[in-house]
Amino acid sequence: MYYNGVYHLFYQYNPYSSVWGNISWAHSISYDLIDWIHLDQAITPSEPYDINGCWSGSVTLLPGPDRKKPAILYTGDNSLGQQVQNLAIPVNLSDPFLEKWMKSPNNPLIIPTGGIDPKFFRDPTTAWRGPDSDTWRVAVGSRLDEHRGAAILYRSKDFVVWERTKVPLHSSNRTGMWECPDFYPVSVGGENGLDSSDDEEESVVRHVLKASFGDRDYYVIGSYDSKNDWFRVDVDFMDERVELRYRYDYGVFYASKSFFDGGKNRRVLWGWVTEADSEADDVSKGWSGLQSIPRTVLLDKSGKQLIQWPVQELEKLRGENVSLANKEIKAEEILHLPGITASQASADVEVSFRIPHLKGIELIDDPLVDPQLLCVRMNASVNGVFGPFGLLVLASKDLTEQTAVFFRIFKLRSNGKYVVLMCSDQSRSSLKTHVKEAFFGSYLDVDPNQEISLRTLDLYRNILRGKSQQGDLLSGPTSNFLAGSLAGCTTLIIIYPLDIAHTRLAADLGRPETRQFQGIRHFLTTVYKKDGARGIYRGLPASLHGMVVHRGLYFGGFDTVKEMMTMSSQSGPDADVALWKRWVAAQAVTTASGLVSYPLDTVRRRMMMQSGLARPMYGGTLDCWRKIYRMEGLGSFYRGALSNVFRSTGAAAVLVLYDEIKKLMNWTGL
Predict the structure, then answer these.
(1) Rounded to the nearest 10 degrees, what angle do helices 641-668 and 579-608 cross at?
(2) d(CA 466, CA 504)
(3) What is the domain range of residue 408?
(4) What would the pLDDT profile of 217-255 be if each residue is shown by its tens digit?
(5) Is the dihedral of CA 280, 281, 285, 290 positive or negative?
(6) What is the model's pTM?
(7) For a surface tag, which of 29, 106, 612, 637 has the fewest beta carbons within 10 Å of its beta carbon?
C-alpha cells in the first residue's frame, strides 16, 4: 500500500519461530521500496474469529472527508477451524506509520454460507467500486467443488454489511482452490497503472484476474462489465494450449499481490519466494521465505499478456558500470564477465544475443509440449543447434555450483512459427543434498530475428532499516542558558559514539546470529571502517542543535526559576526553597524544554539511525527536516512526545536530587 508518501508492506509472519504457525500480519514501511523499517505486528490472533491465525487479505483506501482511510480485509481462522473475513482499521490516521490497528466490533463481516466449504474460503482482494460509486465489491478465493476454483463476489454499501452475488466473479473447473486472488484494471496502450476503482470503456481498459494454485500464480485477461459485475476472459485458466497458460513468473513465485502506487501512477507487484532449505535450516538461519523484487506491471502492446520490470528505484543500488560489447561466442564457450564478483551484494546484468541466422534450426512437432519438461530434457548441458544461450549466475570458480538461465530457439513443424524456450536450470545451484533441484521453463512471445535480451537481478538481501522509540533527552538569564547549553554540548561530543551505538543496537532486532551488529565494539569498528569518523558522529549537528535548546532550558531554566523563587521568598533571599516546590519547578522546566526541543530530537534520532546503512535516506540534517515535513507532515515531529513527557519525571528528579546531594556533600565536608 502507498499512503501519504509511505509504502507499507504487510506479510504473513510467525513472531515466535521461523516455521509455519501463529500467523500474524507483520508490518514494514519504506519511503523508496529499498530501505525498510520493521514495525510491530499490525494484526495478531486474539479473538474467536481469528484465534487460529490471521491469514492473507488486502488493503483498500476508503474515501473520507479530508483524507483517505486504509481498511484491511483479512481472513481469520476461527475457533471452529472455519475461515471468515474480518476488518481492521488504523487507530490513528495522524500517525504517518499507521503502527496501531484495531479490529472491527462487527467481525466477522463475511462467513461461508450457501454451500461454501468453510475450509476453502480465504484471501479477500482489494475492494473496488463501479459506476455506482456507493457500492463496494470484493472477491474471496474459494473452491466450489473438488476441481472448480472461484472468486466469490460480495457487494456492500458501507464496507461492513456484505451480500453475496448470485454468480462468482469468475470460476474454472480445471484448477482446484484459488488462493490470494487479485483483480485490477490495466490500461490498453498506456504507460501508467490504474487504480482498482477506475472505470473506463473496454477499448481503453482491460482487467486482470490472478489466482494462485498448484504453487504457481496464473492470470487471465478479460473484459469487466462493472454495471452487471460480469467478467469475460479471453483465454481461461489452464487452457489446453500450453503456451497460453499465462503466469506472472515461471520460477518460484506464489501468493502475489499488487497495489496501485498513486505517487507514481503505477501498479506494483510483490510475490512470495519460498526457499529450497529444510525446516531445520529455516530454524537455524532465523527466517523462512523471501519477498520478491517489486516489479511494475503493464499490458503489452498486443493486449494478450502482461509485461513486468523491476521498479525504477532499484537502479539506485547500481554501482560502477561494467560493459562487454561485440563479443563472438563459439559453441560450448563460457565467457567470463570481468568486474563482477560473488562478494558483491547485488549484480544487475543485462545481456543481448544477436543470432546471425536461423538456418538448420531444430523442428518441434508438438507446440503443446510442457516447457518445464522440455527444459529438463534439454538442460543447460545439452547442446542444440540454436542454444543454449544464456548466463551462469551464482557460479563458483570451478563451476561445481551454478544456476543456468538460458534460452533455445525452435521452429514448429506444423506452421513454421518460431518458438523461444526460456529455462532456469537449478539442478546444480547447491552442493547440499536435501535442497530442491528444480527446472523452470516457459515459451516467450518474442521475435528471434531481433536481439534477445536477458536480465537477471540477483539481490541476496536488503539492509533493512531498524527503528527505536528511545533516546536521551535533548533538547532566565542568558548566563544560565549558555552554561547549560555548553555543558550539554561538551558532554554530547564526548559520549556521542556510545549514544549512536545505543540507538542503533536497540533497533537491531532478531536472533543474535542474524543481527547486523554483534555489540558496541563491532558496531563502532564496522561503521568507522565504512564511513570513518563521520559515520560514528552521523547526526551530530542535529543533536547539537537540540542540546543547545534542551540543556540550555533544562539546566539554565531550572537555575533561573530557583533564583526567582529564592528572591521572592518571604524568608529572605538566602532562604532554602521547599523540596516540593523545587520538584514542581523542575517538572515544569523539564516538560517545557522537552516539548520545545522535541522536533530537534526527532531529526537527531532519524539521522543516527542511518549509521551503518548502505544508502542513507537523508542527505543531511536539512534534508531530513524537509523530507519529514513533506512526506509525514508537521505532526510527525512530535510523534511520541506524550510518552516523553511521562519520562521527564525522572529528569526532573535528577535536578532536585542533584541539589540535595550537593548539600549533603558540603555538610559532610566532602
Answers:
(1) 130
(2) 7
(3) 333-459
(4) 999 999 998 888 989 998 888 876 655 568 888 888 999
(5) negative
(6) 0.65
(7) 106
